Every structure is written in structure tokens, then in C-alpha cells.
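Subject: mismatched residue count in predicted assembly?

I count 392 residues in my input, but I want to confirm that the predicted structure covers every chain. Input:
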Amino acid sequence: MNAIDELTESFSRLPGIGKKSAGRLVNFILKADTSYVKKFALQLNTLQEKIKPCSVCGTWTEDDPCPICTDTMRDRSIICVVEQPQDVSTIESSHEFNGLFHVLGGVIAPLEGIGPDQLNIKQLIKRITEEKVSEVIIATNPTVEGDTTALYLQRMIAAVSDIKVTRLASGLPVGGDLEYADKLTLARSFRGRTEV
Amino acid sequence: MNAIDELTESFSRLPGIGKKSAGRLVNFILKADTSYVKKFALQLNTLQEKIKPCSVCGTWTEDDPCPICTDTMRDRSIICVVEQPQDVSTIESSHEFNGLFHVLGGVIAPLEGIGPDQLNIKQLIKRITEEKVSEVIIATNPTVEGDTTALYLQRMIAAVSDIKVTRLASGLPVGGDLEYADKLTLARSFRGRTEV
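Triage response: the counts match. Full output below for your records.
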């Protein structure tokens, strides 16, 4: 196996990249600007050393605690609970939320052997009881597992505190078309209808 | 810009990978096995040093001349001319050809400012006149530029030698459907029809 085959093999282990695309990427790298390739390799080599989960909220960060947890301009009384670290950047890019985050690291999925103990839930309960939190927004995905996890969290929080627990609205996506909405989404948009 | 954004930026410079996919790949790298990521970074870092164009045929190789050019079991009287180094591995994987290769490094494309002088043509003529070559198979792509280049090469070769110059057959792909064939391909498959 030569250097081309080895790099092709590494590229094809990335999600969504097959053997053919990997070959194309290696050909691109062969002809690419050397300074770009060197920088790319260095970034790849040091990423895992530089980036760690924030000890407070669990999102990926270079500094611990992360810039969001240490930002004094943010509303520290609202915590938005998400499944994955990347969900934090998705919500941040919407500029719709100015509170703090908490990353679970997954959802309750018994079939995959993931129970509440594998998730970052204890730390969330600790934050709720020790800090002045007035609302928890549960922003797990609107899937069976996400909904189950939301329900579980709501009960856990209710057992230790009487703060407001909310869930992101689920319904028709903006710009979508009734015709293409699936039954479940449509049903949920009826149940969650709001007054005009 | 933190380490995540920097690596996302580098990933998104790869062909066919947008900003969102790049973000997904970085998240995969963050959670991936460290030994894999380290190996990947090393392979990326050393690829361009290890792999060079073969001084005889122009394909990517670790050893110069490449294993194909030095293989004494191959038919050294036939040279297959291709556009890009990756075409060599595509043809090799078909196990249909046992001769030598010659990589042009592109095709004649006046609109992009690529004329015959930018291509590896002189070296091809040198090989034809100095070595015992009996046939040149032109395997440039069946595009306007590929066909133009094939015609140009055929004339250049005819000027210095009377060896056989052939072109890969063009027509309906195996497993294809007449209904979906474009007009040009269909026209070419009529002109190139063979007796049953």
C-alpha cells in the first residue's frame, strides 16, 4: 500500500465519503498548494489536544469554561439543553437565544444501550439546584428518542425544583408546504396551534 | 477563529464539501479514535513529499520511474495516453490493458489558456521515436477537448512515425438504456457500430 492508498483509506473513513470520493480528494491534495496542505495536516493533528468539552456545559471549547459559560452579558437564568455539542453552534448561529447551554452528549436510546446514566444529566440537575435558573428549554431533536429524553428530563427537574421547563415548538417548517408535511408533523402543528 | 473553525475552513476547501459537511467532518474528527486522526494528519502532511510524477510516464508514484514503467512483464510496445494521473489507476483497475501509460496532464483547452505546450506531449513524441512502440491508444475523455487533443496527437504522431494510433471506443455504456442515451452518444454508437 503506497502513500496514495493510505490517505485514500483514511479519507474514506470519514462519514459520507466513499472510496471514489476519497480518491478524488487525494488527487486534489496532490495538486493543492503545499502551504494549505501543511496547515490542514497541522490543524488535524492538534484538534483533539486543543478542543475539550467545557467542564460546565459540555460543549466543545478551547478554553475551559467555554466563552458562552463565562460571558457575563448572557442571561444566566435560562439553560437550553441540547443533544450534541454541534447543536450549540447551530442555535448560536440563529441569534435567537441569549442564555446558557447544557450538552447531554446524546439521547436516551435503550436499543443502543444508552440510558440516562450515560448522559450528562447529573451535572444539569446540579446546575439547576445550585445556580439561579428560572427556565430550562429542552431542545433535543423532535424524534422518538428526543421526546423520550425531554419527558425524562422534565420529570427529573420537577422532582428537585419547580422552575419552568419548556420544549422547542414542533410543527411545519417555515417555507414548507402542507402537501409535503408528514402526518406526525401535521398532527403536532394542529395540537400546538397558536392564536393569530 | 478557534481550532474547530480553522479545521472546518480547511475541510470546506476540499472539492464537493460545503460548510455544513465540513462541520460534520470536524465533529467526527473530534470524537474519532486519536490514533486514526494522528495517522491521517501524518499521511496528509507527507503525501506531497512522498508522491511525485513519474519522470517517464507522468503518473503519481513513490518510486521513480513508477512500478508500471519498470515492470518487465508488461507489453512495452503499446502506450495508452490519458489526461490525468488518476486515469491510470482507473484503467489499471479494469485489468483490460497490459501496456505502458503516458499522462498528458490535461487537454488542449484554448478557453482556459491550455495549449499543446502546457501538456506533456514532447516527452510522448520522444518515447515514440526512441523506444520500440507499435501502437498508441489515445484514452482522453470523449469530450470536445478530449477529442480535439486526440486529433492533435494523431497528427503529431503521424508526422514522426507510421505506427498505429487508436482511440477508445465511444458509445452506449454497458447496462445503459437507449431511452436515456443522449443524441451525441447515440450518433457515435451508430457511426462506430460493429458486426455481430
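Chain A has two domains: 3-50, 53-167. Marking this ticket as 'not a bug'.
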